[in-house]
Amino acid sequence: MSANILDGKAIAAEVRAEIKAQVTERLEQDQLPPGLAVILVGENPASQVYVRNKKNACKEVGFADFAYDLPASTTQVDLLALIDELNENPEVHGILVQLPLPDHINPETVIERISPAKDVDGFHPYNVGRLATRMPKLAPCTPHGVMTMLAKTGIELRGLNAVVVGASNIVGVPMVLELLNARATVTICHSATKDLPAKVAEADLVVVGVGIPNMVKGDWIKPGAIVIDVGINRLDDGSLCGDVEFESAKARASWITPVPGGVGPMTIATLLQNTLAVAQAS
Ligand code: GUN
């Protein structure tokens, strides 16, 4: 078997076109464009790329983007003051603080300072709790983007054995909650999991977000499984690869996401969806 490609790039373009149409309608009705504030502290090169992609996506769909590129020396007090100001600004519907933050800033304190109503990353404990109690408001972008990609491809999740590899707050844990809400039977694996290959081999659907190049081997994949690779790793030769060995996994899977062009574009499309949803509700 050779898997079908889950084309996140194309599906994300569809989602962005839907968003752009709704922004045009808002502007025709003299409503504010959706506004997204993107805060970057320091000069992490990967974060700079992600933030640039987010700003470009905002421009493409007609959002107002409020960019704050702050020096690594920014104090936590100053960052919290900026968030307080953005929480009060009616032109700003979404606030995103790019992670990771420099060591002298506590990410939990920062995330909790963002108004849950403007928390378009879905990282505030209020929004995590809403997702965990099946009353989602703003859901984390990467897992929700994966759900959109699967839904738009017509893949039914109810009753599947799903295995999530990686237990981060950004990907693994909210991915589990999303899959549970879709009635999958979910296992979460992490660095203390015993016999990871055996766990992956039981999966009808496997989602991997660990940040280790080619960590999941193709011969672990159950024939016919759906493989979602959240990893984006840059190799020494400058090329990008995922957390799953792509070619050997593709030979066994029924569906697989490529890297790049799989989950990454869906994350950004979902960020735009979340920001639009806040604007439409305000
Ligand atoms: N760092 C890596 N992924 C993300 C994300 O989705 N949002 C934010 N704010 N930071 C990140």
From TrEMBL:
- Give UniProt keywords alphabetically: Amino-acid biosynthesis, Histidine biosynthesis, Hydrolase, Methionine biosynthesis, Multifunctional enzyme, NADP, One-carbon metabolism, Oxidoreductase, Purine biosynthesis
Q: Which residues form a coiled coil?
A: none
Q: Which GO terms describe its biological process?
A: L-histidine biosynthetic process; methionine biosynthetic process; purine nucleotide biosynthetic process; tetrahydrofolate interconversion
Kindly give the Gene3D superfamilies that the UniProt entry links to this protein: Leucine Dehydrogenase, chain A, domain 1, NAD(P)-binding Rossmann-like Domain
Q: Which PROSITE patterns match?
A: THF_DHG_CYH_1 (PS00766), THF_DHG_CYH_2 (PS00767)
Q: Where is the Tetrahydrofolate dehydrogenase/cyclohydrolase catalytic domain?
A: 6-121
Q: What subunit structure does UniProt give?
A: Homodimer.
Q: What is the name of this protein? A: Bifunctional protein FolD
Organism whose genome encodes this protein? Thiomicrospira aerophila AL3
Originating gene: folD
